[in-house]
Amino acid sequence: MNMPLKLVKIGNSTGVVLPKELLTRLRVELGDTLYATETPEGVRLTASNTDFEAKMKLAEQIMRDDRDILHVLAK
């Protein structure tokens, strides 16, 4: 997908207008948060925080691997 995005002035800041089609593809609406991540190819725009997801996957792995230890510590 190659879609031009228009920059607009919002007070003292600059904003970008996201077309309805893009909002639908991202499954977001007014008030939601988007995350911009720098990649070797450019900037990636997502509706999920990839850093948080990576940390949660690591935490889930630790909880699975150390289930017995965590159970004892929880007492």
Q: Main attributes?
A:
elongated; two-stranded antiparallel ribbon; 75 residues; alpha+beta; 4 strands; Pemi-like Protein 1, Chain: D
Give the gist of this structure.
This protein is an alpha+beta fold. Helices cover 41% and strands 27% of the residues.
Descriptive report:
By secondary structure, this protein is α+β, with helices and mostly antiparallel strands. It has one domain (6-74): Pemi-like Protein 1, Chain: D, CATH 2.10.260. The chain is 41% helix and 27% strand. The chain is built from 3 helices and 4 strands. A two-stranded antiparallel sheet has the order 1-2. The model has no long low-confidence stretch (mean pLDDT 87).
Give the SSE map.
Blueprint: E1 6-10, E2 13-17, H1 20-26, E3 35-39, E4 42-46, H2 50-65, H3 67-74
Antiparallel strand pairs: 1-2, 3-4
The radius of gyration is 19 Å
Global mean pLDDT: 87
Question: Numbering strands along the chain, what is their spatial order in the largest sheet?
Answer: 1-2
The H-and-E topology, N to C, reads as EEHEEHH
What proportion of the residues form beta strands (DSSP E)?
A: 25-35%
CATH class (first level) name: Mainly Beta
Total count of helical runs of at least 4 residues: 3
- Name the CATH architecture: Ribbon
| Fold-level CATH name | Pemi-like Protein 1, Chain: D
Q: What structural class results from the helix and strand content?
A: alpha+beta
> What profile does the largest beta sheet have?
2 strands, antiparallel
Shape: elongated
Helix content, binned percent: 40-55%
How many structural domains are formed by the residues? 1
* Model regions low in confidence, pLDDT < 50 over at least 5 residues: none
Distance between the termini: 52 Å
Number of strands: 4
Quaternary assembly: single chain
